[in-house]
From TrEMBL, chain A:
InterPro entries: DUF3823_C, DUF3823_N. This is DUF3823 domain-containing protein. It comes from Leeuwenhoekiella blandensis (strain CECT 7118 / CCUG 51940 / KCTC 22103 / MED217) (Flavobacterium sp. (strain MED217)). Residues 30-121, 125-226 form the DUF3823 domain. Pfam families: DUF3823, DUF3823_C. It comes from the Bacteria.
Length: 229, 626
């Protein structure tokens, strides 16, 4: 037997050996859910709103960022354990409920296997009754809005916009929209029309209404609507 | 025979052990002891030089891109287009947390204090310089991070396993500004009042720092009220609005101390009759420059040189195969007023929408604020005696445009072989060409060899200059309702720029002051902090793309959108034998590498404090909105 054969043998043995001394297990549990108000999902912009998970008890405390999807859902894979869920002040078109005075708005969660959790929050406004109508050159839209937070914490509407995109990712930031225009904000209603870009050739378009609340960075959105042209 | 040698060695071994017990205890030849280092003024200067060298600038000529951020320019370098293709900024951007530097400054001050060899007057000056640098860095930190722990003595760990006694909470933002202001007052007496000293701290440098710090604090107090979400309940971020007037008054006093000549003789730089040339040479003339107050100096044939001219020299005739990186954007170029002091878009179209023809490429920019040509190399302007060759293509009388994709390309047009694109571009996506149609002139070194990697440039970087003192005074006076005083200072700066119509007191508005700072301090690293302290960054950089029609509207509005750099491209009109042959027309374009639109979020106003810092010190609170 040639020396090289021994080397091959040794290499194969090492390959198997290395399988056994693998270091860490991967995170095993999915943590999914929605940000909701009375069970209705709150829709937000793309990569705009996030919350943070902290897992105490392992020395250095670094937050795990969880971003919300456009439809207000989230999904992440984590190790089983006890976590603290914290919204970041000023993030999102909503306020987190205060659990109690000592705990503030921190939510304690315990992950044991796949967990689905809808988190109730208090939005400043809710959009309802969205109606879209696609013409050949423009998309008309209307919606009504309801003010949820009233009293001392109430905030005004800064503006509303109608965004169009050629993919189902529609948002105000980045290149998640082709065109947009301001909508007229009436008493409880929104109306507007956005022209399609010149030479738009696809047979469909995606539309979304966004509501900007004064002093809140992240806008409140309506569900993405696919429209056939 | 060998045996004898062993026997012989024994006494040597024993001897060497007993006779020289301090054999290993030697004075190091490459390290100076504390007594040595602080025993002679020359060595103290070397220690101090290291501290000066580590001064933190937000923008500096040593890093060209740091001077041209926030869409005042496009970056013509293939590896950096991403900056214009993303949607904003990370929360951790611009953060700084160098407590190692602070510790060394604290150690310097403590060790200097112990030294007995130095002349007391000299020692006081060194101490004042150390405190100036320390206050400068705390000023840098508070601008970027908000209030930070104020550590004024060197800390030592006692290895007890418990480091909590070394942990300090963040001070309030106001406390940091108060510290900078009080330090400036405390050291001014010990610093020299000689305006010939530029690269070391002087009385005027301390006062200029004080004026700037007080002005920033005042505006955060005043304008911070409009963005209550950018504040923390403990005051680590945000200053109470009630303190605004007090800070503005401090800023005005400090600035007037310089203006009235109390701390040395300084004046606007007005050496050259050609006002644009004068404005450009303000930045590179190092002999008897009356405007520079505190600079970072450089010297040829040492390690201390920089490559700003290499990076930005016009590509055509460049001394290396590179250059042209900073391409000023149209938004900046058109902001320079006409000589009679009015805002006007560059006239590229007549009333009916037809292009206006110009005989020379630079004629479009005639009768503008002299600072335009002093800051920007426009098509047809010259650098180092060579005219730049900027034109994007050739347009025929029927509207056809012929262009090329390599610098200075020749093509057959109407039967003739002609050059169809300039040797400086603009060519979309070709790095080092003037992709907006402009190059930068400010801080470019006109000396031969400054564009060579083997020589580099020794143009200094001005950290504080007299015009900023004037405009700081003007802004403080305006905020204190002294419009007459404000107009006086503004007009000094505007007259130097060749603007013939003075501003009346009633014409001084917030937008006027913001505009004056925008054009005067373009590419000096101050714009960013103006956007932040006035709390308008989230409006100027709102993430909405711009378009070619609205870009020319509302010039001079402080909150005018600037989310993307646009360009203005000249085209040669080719119409042999017909009218307008050989003239130039202009078109507004967006460089095609610009695909994103920048958005500045509330969480960007103060940089994120890293998780490591938060973990090590639980007393530190996080910045808002992150």
């Amino acid at each position: 037997m040639k020396i090289t054969n021994y080397i091959y043998l040794a290499a194969i043995a090492l390959l198997f050996a290395s399988c056994e001394i693998d270091n860490y297990e991967e995170p095993e549990s999915f943590f999914t859910g929605n940000i909701v108000y009375n069970g209705e999902p709150i829709e937000v912009g793309a990569r705009e709103v996030r919350f943070q998970l902290f897992q105490p008890g392992f020395g250095a405390l670094a937050p795990l960022d969880v971003h919300l999807d456009l439809d207000g859902s989230f999904s992440g894979r984590f190790f089983d354990g006890d976590y603290k869920l914290k919204f970041i002040n000023g993030q999102g078109p909503f306020k987190a409920y205060e659990v109690n005075e000592q705990q503030g708005d921190t939510i304690f969660i315990s992950l044991r296997g796949n967990t689905n959790l809808d988190i109730e929050v208090l939005p400043y406004y809710m959009l309802r009754n969205e109606a879209f109508n696609a013409g050949t050159a423009a998309v008309d839209a209307s919606a009504s809005y309801e003010q949820i937070i009233t009293g001392a914490d109430a905030r005004n509407i800064e503006f509303a916009r109608l965004y169009l995109n050629d993919t189902e990712q529609v948002s105000n930031n980045g290149d998640y929209h082709m065109v947009w225009s301001d909508m007229t904000v009436g008493d409880g209603t929104l109306n507007g029309s956005t022209a399609l870009p010149d030479g738009y050739s696809k047979p469909y378009v995606f539309a979304r209404i966004a509501l900007k609340i004064a002093g809140v960075e992240d806008m409140l959105f309506s569900p993405v609507q696919k429209l056939d042209l | 025979m060998k045996k004898y040698i062993y026997f012989l060695m024994i006494p040597f071994l024993l001897g060497s052990c007993s006779s020289d017990s301090e054999f290993l205890d030697r004075e190091p030849t490459n390290v100076l002891s504390q007594e040595q280092a602080f025993g002679s003024p020359d060595l103290v200067i070397s220690v101090l030089a290291d501290l000066y060298n580590r001064y933190y600038d937000f923008g500096t000529v040593e890093d060209w891109s740091s001077l041209a951020q926030f869409n005042v320019a496009f970056w013509s370098e293939a590896g950096r287009y991403w900056y214009f293709q993303n949607g904003g900024y990370g929360y951790g951007d611009w953060g700084t947390w160098d407590y190692g530097y602070i510790r060394e400054m604290n150690l310097f001050l403590e060790r200097l204090e112990l030294s007995e060899e130095l002349d007391p007057e000299e020692k006081a000056r060194f101490a004042a310089e150390g405190r100036f640098l320390r206050a400068s860095y705390y000023f840098t930190m508070v601008k970027r991070m908000g209030g930070v722990p104020l550590i004024l003595e060197s800390q030592t760990y006692d290895f007890s396993g418990d480091a909590t006694y070394l942990q300090f909470p963040r001070e309030t933002e106001a406390a940091l500004y108060d510290f900078v202001i009080s330090e400036a007052d405390a050291i001014v007496a010990d610093l020299p009042g000689d305006s010939g000293i530029k690269a070391r701290a002087t009385k005027a440098a301390a006062m200029a720092m004080k004026a700037r710090a007080a002005l920033y604090a005042g505006s955060i107090a005043k304008y911070g009220a409009s963005t209550p979400q950018v504040s923390l309940p403990g005051g680590e971020v945000g200053i109470p609005a009630s303190r605004a007037d007090e800070y503005y008054a401090t800023a005005l006093d400090a600035a007037q101390a310089i203006i009235n000549g109390e701390v040395g003789s300084y004046a606007l730089y007005e050496k050259k009759p050609d006002l644009s040339e004068n404005f450009a040479s303000l930045f590179y003339d190092k002999s008897n420059n009356s405007e520079a107050i505190f600079v970072e100096d450089f010297m040829l044939q040492t390690q201390k040189t920089h490559g700003f001219t290499i990076a930005n020299q016009p590509r055509y005739g460049a001394e290396e195969e590179e250059g042209g990186r900073i391409n000023p954007a149209l938004s900046l170029v058109q902001s320079f007023e006409t000589l009679d002091g009015t805002y006007a878009p560059l006239p590229i179209e007549d009333a009916s929408g037809d292009p206006i023809h110009y005989d020379t490429p630079e004629a479009l920019f005639a009768n503008r604020d002299a600072r335009l040509m002093g800051t920007v190399i426009v098509p047809g302007a010259s650098f180092k005696g060579r005219e730049v060759d900027i034109f994007a293509g050739v347009q025929l009388s029927d509207g056809t445009v012929i262009s090329g994709d390599s610098r200075g390309q020749q093509k057959e047009v109407l039967g003739n072989d002609i050059q169809v694109v300039g040797f400086d571009g603009p060519i979309d996506g070709l790095e080092f060409t003037a992709q907006t149609g402009f190059y930068i002139r400010k801080y470019q070194d006109p000396k031969a060899g400054s564009g060579q990697r083997g020589t580099r440039s020794d143009v200094w970087f001005i950290r504080y200059r007299y015009a900023e003192v004037l405009l700081n005074a003007a802004e403080a006076a305006f905020e204190l309702n002294q419009n007459e005083v404000a107009a006086g200072y503004l007009n000094q700066v505007r007259r130097r720029a060749g603007i013939t119509t003075d501003l009346a007191a009633a014409e001084v508005t917030f937008d006027r002051i913001a505009h004056e700072r925008f054009v005067e301090f373009a590419f000096e690293g101050l714009h960013f902090f103006d956007l932040k302290r006035w709390r308008i960054a989230h409006e100027v950089l709102d993430g909405t793309p711009m378009d070619a029609t609205s870009i020319t509207e509302n010039i001079g509005d402080a909150t005018k959108r600037l989310t993307q750099p646009f360009g203005l491209w000249p085209y040669k009109y080719y119409n042999p034998g017909g009218p307008n042959d050989g003239t130039y027309i202009y078109k507004i374009v967006k460089p095609n590498r610009v695909t994103g639109a920048d958005r500045f979020q509330f969480g960007n106003y103060y940089s994120e404090i890293g998780a490591g810092i938060l973990n090590n010190n639980p007393l530190i609170v996080r910045n808002p909105n992150q």
